Amino acid sequence: MKYKRLQHYPHVDGTHYGPALLPYTQAIYELLRRRLNKAFFQIGLSVEITGDILRYIAQGKLQWRHVFPQMSFVGVTTLGIALIVSTFAAMVIALQVATEMARQGASSYVGALVSLAMLRELGPIMTAVAVVAMAGSAYTAELSTMQITKQIDALRVLHVDPIRYLIMPRVVAAVLAMPLLTIITCTSGIVGGMAISQWLADIPWYTFLDSVWQQTEPKDIWTALFKSAIFGYTISILSTTIGLSTQGGAKEVGTATTRAVVWCFVSVALMDYFITFLVYGSE
Fold this sequence. Notes:
By secondary structure, the protein is mostly helical. It has helices at 25-58, 64-103, 110-148, 151-157, 162-201, 205-215, 218-244, 251-280. The longest helix is centred in the N-terminal third of the chain and has 40 residues, at 64-103. It starts with 24 loop residues before the first helix and ends with a helix.
């Protein structure tokens, strides 16, 4: 078997480690050890599979006929909920600040505030949340079901690499689809903020859009697209590798899906902080 990590999944063998200084110390120690083993196993497996994906792409083995259906799945499945979440998030921002800023004579900055909030944070983050909920969970459930029903082993018997056939199209599709979704959600959010600003604070639409145009920099747009691509990679690689490493019975499908969703949310939050710090931390 090529991926040796899948043969030796970390588990508790009954051996006792660590000093039992207080009641439940041993149980807490074992729980932490199991969680850390799973975390390092998952990170190592993701890095290993990422290397294979990059090698396959460099060798020209990427088949776009497998990528396009996955892009359609990510985009069509996620677009509706992503639009709702991002648009209402921008409308809430406009609802909170438009009236007060207009009262203070700063109505010309409302559009810039909504635009920068959407491009720098809310657009990529809300899109990632929708992708995790709709596509990432589906990836994990699908692959974990294939794993426990031995369909992955059947592919290997037929000399079909599951990394190339199952994981690579999903990862590439998520990386390509996420920036496109973010463009749509950010645009929808800005339009929603403009509508609320005009309705509540009588800020003309041309004043709102002029503020957006004057204050938004190309760096903000490129950062939003870059964040989205990184989020798409993170979500897809974690969802697929967790599904591929699932062991046990049908119950483990739900456990793996829950674990993948949690890991994706935490990873997206961490990646968002580090990218934002690198781009805007020195300003």
